[in-house]
């Protein structure tokens, strides 16, 4: 806690990704919980959607005793279907899972209210908008019910909504329980992501884009509307990096009050002998995979270079990474063989049976399999962007190629049928990772990489890259992180920057590499939640003060 700041007595944080592991926000919330829990104990509540009715959710441990009196009251009197338990993560915070399905019949009335109160335009809703909004509305009702049953006006309460999907909950609470202070965090603007994803230049023209007009052009008016109106009405508006704040300022017409940078906990990073053992096993597994696919031997001096994350071909810079590998394959400065791993979940069909057979045997192979680039068959083998580009670049894993590529198009959840290891058990195999993002509000993947002492290459269009540039003593890959300058139009320079960095790294001695890996770990140490949580306390303080002002204005 920080001197002079107002601190809440109760904190509620809601997200579609509470006990629901689908993206980066899950990492934000599940790693910060332990740090917040140390201050708020069981006055910290996370709220998520109950998507697992009748099935067991390994992330949620239900409890009959927690908040039992209120829960029974909420079910019987407020007609809310809720389950209460603990999140199966460090800190084990209390979680309320909400069934939002019963609100669908009231959808039109809810949207009318939102229009009348807050000018939220839900007319053009489609896809996940309705589902998200019903969950948000149900969340607002749950917090209202809890507040009225358990708390009084003397309790200082903060409700934090993560992403446009929960915006309606914050607005509902402002209208119905004005004493609750609201914080809204956008992790990426829906309109910014859409502009970038539609191959329109985002950065050079940011000042010229009109958010409302672009939302109409790209057919995302409703998402944009709830995001924009929530940003304007809440007591404290926040985002995750300076780069996303520029988008908020230009596209939502509202800069953030505080920037909440994404920290993380390193409690899952192995240390000492455990780390060395995991790294050795992971490397030998990947070299075995490469031998089974290509029929070629890989010595331990082979550089393993990886990229991973969501399959956003341009936004995540997968395209520029493949182009860099193509150039590297012809680069005379490359001192070692490179095995490049592209681990991004595609439209995966099934694990390859021919590969499974080879992986089971003890044999060393001297002939390649057909299609020696991929571990699983895809439903769209002929229209996959990674495979298309590898074919176009003629990167085919021939014996004479210095650079070999393996595409792993599935979630590394420990049961994919080929590698059968978790992502974190494989990332330790890498010598270098590459995340040359074009659109990346923060960038957990490069941060996780350096936490595992794997030096990384990223760009200044990622919030994480921008933050690294602000640190003292950061001068490129020698210090653990190479931040390449990226703009709308310098694709070729970025590809060369990646190529040159990998080639340079391939010439480093064992001692130099050890020092670089140590420095990479030191960068991650500076991004732990214990350093970044202070920004949350600032946001809570602003929200609590503005909530008091808002109530005074309403009374007058």
Task: Give a structural overview.
With 556 residues, the protein is of the alpha/beta class. The chain has helices at 24-40, 68-76, 107-118, 128-150, 167-176, 190-197, 211-217, 221-233, 242-251, 272-294, 318-328, 353-360, 385-393, 423-427, 444-451, 463-470, 491-506, 510-525, 529-532, 534-555; strands spanning 10-14, 44-49, 60-62, 82-87, 94-98, 157-162, 181-186, 236-239, 258-259, 303-308, 338-343, 348-351, 376-378, 403-408, 432-435, 456-459, 481-484. It has a nine-stranded mixed sheet, with helices on both faces. Strands 14-11-10-15-16-17 form a six-stranded parallel sheet, with helices on both faces. The protein is globular. 49% of the residues are buried. The mean pLDDT is 96.
Give the helices and strands, then pairings.
Elements: E1 10-14, H1 24-40, E2 44-49, E3 60-62, H2 68-76, E4 82-87, E5 94-98, H3 107-118, H4 128-150, E6 157-162, H5 167-176, E7 181-186, H6 190-197, H7 211-217, H8 221-233, E8 236-239, H9 242-251, E9 258-259, H10 272-294, E10 303-308, H11 318-328, E11 338-343, E12 348-351, H12 353-360, E13 376-378, H13 385-393, E14 403-408, H14 423-427, E15 432-435, H15 444-451, E16 456-459, H16 463-470, E17 481-484, H17 491-506, H18 510-525, H19 529-532, H20 534-555
Features:
about 550 residues, alpha/beta, 9-stranded mixed beta sheet, 6-stranded parallel beta sheet, 17 strands, about 45% helix, globular
Output the number of helix runs: 20
Strand order of the largest sheet: 3-4-5-2-1-6-7-8-9
Unreliable parts? none
Helix fraction bin: 40-55%
Major sheet characteristics: 9 strands, mixed
Average pLDDT level: 96
The value of Rg in angstroms is: 25 Å
User: Which strand-content bin applies to the residues?
Assistant: 5-15%
Task: For the record, give the distance between the C-alpha atoms at the N and C termini, rounded to a whole number.
Answer: 33 Å
């Amino acid at each position: 806690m920080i001197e002079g700041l107002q601190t809440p007595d109760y904190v509620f944080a809601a997200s579609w990704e509470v006990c629901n592991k689908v993206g980066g926000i899950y990492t934000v919330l599940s790693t910060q919980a332990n740090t917040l829990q140390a201050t708020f104990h069981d006055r910290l509540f996370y709220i998520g959607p109950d998507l697992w009715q009748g099935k067991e959710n390994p992330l949620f441990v239900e409890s009959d005793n927690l908040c039992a009196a209120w829960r029974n009251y909420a079910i019987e009197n407020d007609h809310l279907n809720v389950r209460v338990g603990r999140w199966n993560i460090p800190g084990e915070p209390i979680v309320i899972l909400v069934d939002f399905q019963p609100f669908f019949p009231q959808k039109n009335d809810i949207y009318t209210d939102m229009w009348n109160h807050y000018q939220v335009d839900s007319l053009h809703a489609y896809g996940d908008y309705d589902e998200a909004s019903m969950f948000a509305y149900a969340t607002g009702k749950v917090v209202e019910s809890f507040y009225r049953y358990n708390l009084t006006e003397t309790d200082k309460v903060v409700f934090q909504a993560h992403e446009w999907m929960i915006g309606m909950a914050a607005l509902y609470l402002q209208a119905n329980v004005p004493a609750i202070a609201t914080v809204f965090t956008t992790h990426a603007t829906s309109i910014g992501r859409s502009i970038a994803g539609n191959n329109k230049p985002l950065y050079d023209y940011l000042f010229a884009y009109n958010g409302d007009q672009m939302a109409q052009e790209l057919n995302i008016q409703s998402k944009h509307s709830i995001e924009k109106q929530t940003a304007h009405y809440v007591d404290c508006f926040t985002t995750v990096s300076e780069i996303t704040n520029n988008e908020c300022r230009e596209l939502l017409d509202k800069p953030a009050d505080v920037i909440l940078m994404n920290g993380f906990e390193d409690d899952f990073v192995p240390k000492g002998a455990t780390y060395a053992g995991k790294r050795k096993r992971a490397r030998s597994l990947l070299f075995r995979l490469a031998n089974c696919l290509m029929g070629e031997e890989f010595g331990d001096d082979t550089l393993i270079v990886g990229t991973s994350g969501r399959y956003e071909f341009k936004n995540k810079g997968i395209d520029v990474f493949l182009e860099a590998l193509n150039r590297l394959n012809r680069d005379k400065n490359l001192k070692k063989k490179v095995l490049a791993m592209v681990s991004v979940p595609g439209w995966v069909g099934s694990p390859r049976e021919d590969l499974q057979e080879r992986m089971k045997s003890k044999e060393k192979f001297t002939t390649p399999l057909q299609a020696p680039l991929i571990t699983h068959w895809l439903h769209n083998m002929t229209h996959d962007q990674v495979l298309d580009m590898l074919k176009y670049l003629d990167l085919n894993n021939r014996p004479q190629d210095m650079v070999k590529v393996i595409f792993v198009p599935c979630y590394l959840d420990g049961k994919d049928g080929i590698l059968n290891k978790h992502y974190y058990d494989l990332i330790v195999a890498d010598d270098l990772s590459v995340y040359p993002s074009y659109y990346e509000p923060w960038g957990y993947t490069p941060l996780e990489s350096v936490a595992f002492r794997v030096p990384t290459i990223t760009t200044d269009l990622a919030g994480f890259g921008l933050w690294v540039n602000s640190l003292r003593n950061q001068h490129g890959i020698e210090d653990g992180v190479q931040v390449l300058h990226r703009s709308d139009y310098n694709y070729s320079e970025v590809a060369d920057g990646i190529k040159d960095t990998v080639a340079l790294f391939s010439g480093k001695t064992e001692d130099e590499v050890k020092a670089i890996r140590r420095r990479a770990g030191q960068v991650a140490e500076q991004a732990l939640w214990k350093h970044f949580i202070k920004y949350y306390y600032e946001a809570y303080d602003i929200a609590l003060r503005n909530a008091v002002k808002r109530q005074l204005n309403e009374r007058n």
